[in-house]
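Incident log, structure service

09:12 report received: a user says their structure output differs between two submissions of the same chain.
09:20 pulled the input from the user's history:
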Amino acid sequence: MNYRKETISKTCRKFLLFMMLHSLLSCTDQGCKYVTVSEEPYIAYCKNQDDIVYKDDRFIFNKDIEKLHSGAMEFIKIGEDSLAKVQLEGALEIEPTNPILLNDLGNLEERTKDFERAISLFKEAIKSSDSIYFPAEYNLADLYAILGEQEKAEFHYNHIIKKHRNDFLNGLAYRGLAEMYIDYGYQGKAKEMIIKAKESMENYSDFVSNFNVLEKRIDDYN
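09:34 re-ran on a clean worker, output below:
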């Protein structure tokens, strides 16, 4: 299979980007403020360097699941992935179709390189939320891109754009496409996606540096 050369580093970075961490990390902890991207439904993010805390009030935990999920996040912080899995799987026994739990366990399985199970969990999260829970489909698209499955990755990035019609979420999807095309050597396509991403996220200035990095990669390639 044609893995992208930065598979390990990108997988770890994405794990930080789209784990649902609002139960563990507050804005104060992250040193940044939440930025609202949608009032109804309420969606917001908090960005600090490469980390994004994603909030969507349509998806919440009860107290029992909150405790297990928080425990899993604590284990992840100290590198105890197997113990984190136990916590997340325990939470899924209580609520088997919770898309946050399915997505987070998928991220953990990807981190430990069980890509087949990660894909299955992301798909379950997408299905259980009727494609509404954005991180699961983004993570699935990103994993397909890492594994060299270009058509599948494109399908899911583009489905995000069609489904959500939200500038911020669309911008992240365009950014994912741009990064994939850079990795595959399609610099022309990458430039087109960066333009679309920047247009979609023109009101989110904290992402400017991310686009600068991608543009520099294109310049270096040329």
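09:41 both user submissions now match this output. Likely a transient worker issue. Closing.
09:42 reviewer note: The longest strand covers residues 43-48. The CA atoms of residues 29 and 127 lie 32 Å apart.
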